[in-house]
Amino acid sequence: MSTSHTQRWPVEVSIIIPVFNKVDLTEKCLEALALTTKSVPHEIIVVDNASTDSTPQLLASRKAVRAIRNDANQGFAHACNQGAAAARGHYLLFLNNDTVPFPNWLEPLMQEFRLRPEVAMVGAKLLYASGLVQHAGVAFARELFAEVGLDVGAIAGSSLQSSRVTRDDVRQALAHRAQPLTGLRAIIAERLAAAWRERPQVTLTTEADATALVSAREQVMAETGEKVPYDAFMVMVVARVLREQPHVNVRLTAAGVERPAAIHIGVAVDTPQGLLVPVLRDVGAASLLQ
């Protein structure tokens, strides 16, 4: 990646344009910006995602443009983040290279920030050549990200599609950032993910007459004096099925499909601490009371 820039005046707005080829569109966009963006101190940053046409030569000829050249196409969002990281403006404004601004287009956007301190993002009305409205382009106040402890480079351009967003809206959205799992819940998440990766998932929904099961349980408890839960009967039934259908009692490893010699059955138990799955080992060789 290489960068070049020649900019001397105070910068209020950094205009960031990710590009990949289509040099004709980029040239029209830059020409329009030069004619229509004079009232607001600004800089123009073009992030070139390894264009194979004459885009590098065009950018080199534009002394007012800060060019960032990537050796490979890093994608639109990555280019937006690169431009944001290199920006020196108080506000960041993202444009596609097929944008042709109207005269005095930027001043109304900045006016929203000056008149309404609670506003964090504003968007211009974008029109197709036919006059139809496109989705909104967005500019936002970068100090808000420092306030909440986020790197502005974490924002993808495609996520900024609101016509007017207040600072409270942004704070509320950022409050829902992912929290790391720790302790027991981290172990539960790891084991559940491993189960989905390594074991075939078989779901069977059916109805059965449990009269015989109820009678058998009552008989066992009467003969043994032990209170035997229905779960024990279910485990024994599953163990019998796995003995008769050993191709189901498998797990996926890096070496291939592994068929354990023993039958181990996990019984999921919902607890206040999370979903726990104690494993009953070698069930095939155990008795009902064991």
What are its keywords?
290 residues; alpha+beta; Spore Coat Polysaccharide Biosynthesis Protein SpsA, Chain A; Chloramphenicol Acetyltransferase; 2 domains; eight-stranded mixed beta sheet; two-stranded antiparallel ribbon; 22% strand; elongated
Can you walk me through this structure?
- The chain is of the alpha+beta class and 290 residues long.
- It has two domains: 2-174, Spore Coat Polysaccharide Biosynthesis Protein SpsA, Chain A, CATH 3.90.550.10; 183-285, Chloramphenicol acetyltransferase-like domain (Chloramphenicol Acetyltransferase, 2-Layer Sandwich), CATH 3.30.559.
- It is 34% helix and 22% strand.
- The protein contains nine helices and 14 strands.
- The strands form four sheets. It has an eight-stranded mixed beta sheet with strand order 1-4-3-2-5-7-6-8, sandwiched between helices. It has a two-stranded antiparallel ribbon with strand order 9-10. It has a two-stranded antiparallel ribbon with strand order 11-14.
- It is elongated, with a radius of gyration of 32 Å.
- It starts with a strand and ends in a 10-residue tail after the last strand.
- Residues 4-9 and 156-163 have low confidence and may be disordered.
Class of the largest domain in CATH? Alpha Beta
Shape: elongated
Rg, Å, rounded: 32 Å
Helix and strand element order: EEHEHEHEHEEHEHHHHEEEEEE
Q: Can you give the helix content as a percent range?
A: 25-40%
- Give the strand order, joined by hyphens, for the main sheet: 1-4-3-2-5-7-6-8
What would you give as the CATH superfamily of the largest domain? Spore Coat Polysaccharide Biosynthesis Protein SpsA, Chain A
